Amino acid sequence: MFKALVARFKEGCRTGAFPPAAPNLPPDFKGRPEIAANTTAEDVARMKAVCPITDALTFSDGKASLDMGRCIFCGRCAEACPKVRFTKEYRLGVFRREDLVVRAGAGEYVPPVQTNPEALALKGSLHLREVSAGGCTACELDANVLGTPAWDMARFGIRFAASPRHADAIYLTGPISENMQLALDKTYAAAPDPKFLIAAGACAISGGLYSKGRYPVEPTMYIPGCPPHPATTLEALLRFTGNGC
Ligand code: SF4
Ligand code: SF4
Q1: Beta carbon of 64 within 6 Å of any ligand 2 atom
Q2: Which part of the chain has CATH 3.40.50.12280?
Q3: Cα-flanking dihedrals φ and ψ of residue 124, to 5°?
Q4: Ligand 2 atom closest to Cα of 175?
Q5: Whose CA is nearest to atom 4 of ligand 1?
Q6: What are the tens digits of pLDDT across the range 198-216?
Q7: Residue 63 in contact with residue 103, Cβ under 8 Å?
Q8: Where in the chain is the domain with CATH 3.30.70.20?
Q9: Does domain 117-240 fall into CATH 3.40.50.150?
């Protein structure tokens, strides 16, 4: 026992400094995209030719746009056309689906703040019931690390709950496959009111590479990525409860 305590003491604190320090993102991290204002229809056509997702890139009313809710952040469009670049902006979670669409020539980005009074009433305590509705498990794994000592989201009052009865929100990953539709509906119904639905990852937001099933209700937050980076998810969940970092 004594040896174990000494070993633990020598290990020290393994929890990262984020937040409040900036997250330690990998060199190839792809965050919020920027699209040059002069991007043409031909540029978009060139990018669409290499994009694996239908309708992630569009050109309408003379402007190019990229839908982060459909995008899997593979970076092929940026390789095909220098008018798109992926920044290191990791604060990608939004409260309205339309806010995931990045338009050409968009100005400075400011992440949206929580205004929902029922979410703010949680006062930072957020219990999530994860529903993996047919995803590839990468979204689930990157959410799971938030509970490890390295990220320790419990220090902010955010935890995954073992039962929907104890959950404030359903944390949905995966495209909602046919066989998971009923399970998602039942899990959402089992959570006490007021309750929220958080869609994490391209699959849960738009189906991603697959076709999407039906939400029990429209999500109250969307966290894009494939999978969303843990820093993106933690920052979004903190902002969900009104505790932005
Ligand atoms: S990064 Fe997104 S928009 Fe660009 S090619 Fe990949 S999926 Fe398509
Ligand atoms: S969004 Fe990407 S990482 Fe997440 S479940 Fe779908 S394919 Fe997997």
Answers
A1: no
A2: 117-240
A3: 90, -15
A4: 6
A5: 77
A6: 999 999 999 999 999 999 9
A7: yes
A8: 33-91
A9: no
